[in-house]
Design brief:
DHBP synthase, binds magnesium ion, 9 helices, about 325 residues, eleven-stranded mixed sheet, Rossmann fold, binds threonylcarbamoyladenylate, about 20% strand, alpha/beta
Amino acid sequence: MAAEITRNVARCAQVLRTGGLVAFATETVYGLGANALNPTAVAKIFAAKRRPEFDPLIVHVAEIGDIEPLAKTSHPLFETLSQQFWPGPLTLLLPKLDIIPDLVTSGLPDVGIRIPANDVARQLIKVAGVPVAAPSANLFGRTSPTTAAHVVEQLGESVDLVLDDGPCSVGVESTIVRMTGPSSLEVLRVGGTTLEMLQTVCSEVTVVSNLLDETAPAAPGQLASHYAPLTPIQIVNDWSTTDLPPCAAALCFQQAPPDHENLSIVEILSPDGSLVEATANFFAALRRLDCPDIDVILAERFPDRELGVALNDRLRRAATR
Ligand code: TXA
Ligand code: MG
């Protein structure tokens, strides 16, 4: 039976407390949550997603004070980053304390921690009274969910409840950061907190690109192939040199390509050219184009700035198979 979609926070919190799985809205994408301190509950996440256990989970908390029993916060950049960007789409890697089960971090010494900006998500964590481990609520390697219905499509049989709070406002996953020196950090995954935003508080921001190195990924889940629809994706740098075959669909930033009459479907993510709006629409549009009568999705490259950097990253991985 497919999981029930609800807006009842107390019921969802009760399921989390008793070791069940609750998918819930965050501002980035929907998460598949379990009590992070209960290894049996955490194991259900890996089983439901068919996710390999070498791929660690992010732990979500409601406020900064909740982190103290879980991880060390002594790095000099912690205060600046947490004050500036939390609640929000930023995950900080912190040295874990023993209370975090090894399954959560796949045996790594650091745990990813995030305080989501979505009020309902923070309320859920607060009422549950436990930290919540949650990957994106999709099958491993597939397109991330930005609505409750997306979750039910892929995980409806394995999740106990879905806490609905409408479509995600940001639409792309959190940026994952490792603090290195006193004013330097490494970005393991570009996401909802842009590089430009990080550069306002940190003099050295290095993107650790591991796209082509599957043997030693810096964020183990950052495999070259990820976020993939079933339909092949081709990235378009220039429409004027791109063939538009029959049964192709186009995913465009601001406007339809020239000669688009031949295309089966055209999705325009932001007619106003807003990267924020395009990001909020991105994964849902990709899902709409992922249908059996489409042979190829032609996806236009985004401007390489702000949220466009995260969108291009998702496109590259979705196009890799
Ligand atoms: O926005 C988000 O981050 C969403 C929402 C639900 O919060 N979560 C999410 O989780 O995207 P997931 O599991 O789909 O992606 C998390 C990524 C994975 O690539 C994982 O390998 C990496 O974070 N990660 C988690 N913990 C890590 C750690 N301790 N060290 C290195 N990478 C880690
Ligand atoms: Mg994911």
